[in-house]
Structure formats: structure tokens, C-alpha cells
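Section 3.1: Structural characterization of target chains.
Under the original work plan, the team committed to producing a structural model for every single-chain target entering the pipeline before any wet-lab resources were allocated. The record below documents one such target. The sequence was received from the expression subgroup and is listed exactly as submitted; it comprises 420 residues.
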Amino acid sequence: MLARELASARPEPAARSLLGFLRRRGLRLGLLTNSGSPFREPFEAAGLAECFDAALFSCDLGCKKPAPESYRAALAALACAPEEMLMIGDSPATDVDGPAAIGMPALRLGPPGRGASVERFEDLAWVADLGAGDFRPLAAPGRRVRLGELDGTLERVDLLSDDIQGRYNLVARVVVLWDEGWREEAYLKRYRHPEAVAIEEIARALLAEVGIETNRVAVQDGLEPLLLARAVTGEKLVAGAPPDPDLAFEIGRHGASAYLFANADLRPRNAFLTRQGGRPRLTMVDYEYTLFDRALDLSDLAERCDPEALARRPESELLARGSRRVVTRAAIQRTRRAFFDHRLVSAESLAAFRAGWQEVHRAAQSAAARIEELLHERLTRRPPLVIGTESYRRAFLPLDIADLRERIAGDPAAACDLCF
């Protein structure tokens, strides 16, 4: 009987992604369970042990919830005072009343009732701020949303499973009932860095100027900005297969856009393939790392995400803080190799790749004034554009526009040569 129970133990489909997201948001996580030692194996086999800063099993503690000693052991393991800890669980006796007896707040998993609660484990993904005790939902059935000229109401919000979540953010599949009376499946994204939604938005405006089609997105303002995205049709691109000339042309177009707009995350995993009039078309998703070329180390500056404050510093001082670039020949070749090995591709396909690249590069040259206008206008608005990875996160600056201008002004054929 125990063997059957152990064999049937399964984590929540999005457990690792959700727990990882909470830790990336700065929370320390602990597990306190009344389970016996046999349950360690499925817990560790599911990869859950690495998601917690501490995991306490009653068999090791010598006591079970709701004994006060069990909660005090968790407090000691995480070096917290009772008021700094939040207990989350589905048992009123052991996960609400027991913690309350020693002054620990709780959030119950289950239907609405006594005290603060969320119905499902995955709903923790949309709690405004667990660390601050703000349990208001960012997304739930009934929330109003807007996409372009459409207004509607969320009917379902379901986190994607771990195997199709990204590394840093959380994405849910949602069903929207539009006020016009029809339903649509879309995607809702919560970011590790909430300000990244603004990059997703401006990136699509820039891509439109060079003829690159993208899926429709809209920032949903509220307690924290979220991104609502129209579902992309088509199938995931198969990486590594030698492309025919038509597909190579499409890959070249997107390669040029990534080079010009410094998109560090152009990958086959973000590419969806459809056919229009018999010709392949690629649609990319995930543009949050666009516009990031110069890796400046501003980590010691409190104002690193404030463009106005940084603009008061001499540009030479900022440039002296790092010479590393993201848009390099090595990076460009690595991106191209992710799509195809040029040694296995026909001469016709290579020529088509170059033609697609140069088409977009020349389109950018024709639209250069408009592209700069969009970026300068965005610099004047709040919230500011914040670019970069974890180690080099900073405000987008006029010097980044100058770098982009230089790439656009370059020779399209020479830029394409960087791929090989």
C-alpha cells in the first residue's frame, strides 16, 4: 500500500517554476511536512528539494504539526521571527491554527472561508506580494483586460507546466470572454522584473518599422504590470534541420532584426512556423532582452534604473564601466548555429538567408529616423525602459540609441558576414 502511494506521488505541474520564481523574487522557502522518511525519495526525484532553502520532515524533528516545536524548527532553519514567516497549507488545524498559536501568519489553500486563502497551489503565482502579506490577486477569473481595441474578462487562468515554462518568468494560458461575446485563448505573463513588460511593448513597435510581424500584446496595468499576449499560431520550429530557401530567407530576416535591435534571446525555441500562401513565416515570442548591447556594471549605483539620474553623469564615466558587448561576432554566429549549420545548407539557402537579412537591414535604414523618434520619445515617459540581465540591469540610455544608429548605418552585406 505504501509502495502504491509513493509511486502515485506527483508534484503540481508547475511546482518547480512557481517555487523558483518566488525564490528569484527574494523569498526564502521552507518545507515543513508531517510526511515520513519514505516520502523523501519522490520529493527529491521530482527535483523539489532544490526548490527549498530548508526541508523539514517530522520523522527527523521528532514532532509533528501542530506542535509548536515543529514551527519553531522551521523558524530556526530559515532564521526568521514568527511575524516574518508565512505558513501556506491546506489544513486549517496544522497550517493556520497551529502557526497562529506562535504568532505566525498563514495563507490557506482551499475554497474561500475563514482567513486569507487562495483556491489552488498555482494561484500563488498571482498573489501580489507574499513577502509583504499582500494577498490580492494580480490575475483571476473576473479580472478585466484589454488587448488593442478589445475589452474583456478573464474566465480561466492556468499556469503552464514546468516543461514549457521559461527560466525566469511565469506564463499562464488564459481564456478571455470579450465584450463582443466571443472567447479567445491567450497568454498572460508575470515577469521576474515587472518593468520588462515595457521592453516587450517597444520591441514590437520597432519590429513593425522593419516589416517583422509579431503577435499582439498589451500591458495590463494594476498592482503589478502583466503582459497579455495573443496566442501564436503554427508549430514550434525544429532546430538544426537544414532550411529550404524560403525558410532560410525568414531566418535571415529575424537574424537581422535581432542584430539591429540587440535581441539577445533569438532562439529556435521562441520561433513558431506558419505558412502563408505556401511560403513559411516565422513569428517570434519573448523580446524582453531586446535593446541590450552594452554590459555596463552600474550595480553600485542606486540610480542605475533611473535614466534621468544617469544622464546627469558624464557619458565617458558610464562607458568606462564596461567594454563587454552582447552583440558580438561570436554571439551572432552562436545564434545562427542554433538555427542551422551553414556547412549542411545549400548555396541557394545561404543566398536566401543573406537576402532576407539585407531586406530587413535596408528597411531599418529607410526607417532610421522613425526608429530613433520612437526610442527618444520612449525615453521621456515613465515607467523607464530597463534593459539587461541580472548582473547588468540598468536604464536604457541615449548612448544605446547611438549604438543602434551605428548598427543600422552599417553595410548590410558586411553585417550579414558576421554570421559566418
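Residues 235-417 form a domain with the Phosphatidylinositol 3-kinase Catalytic Subunit; Chain A, Domain 5 fold (CATH 1.10.1070).
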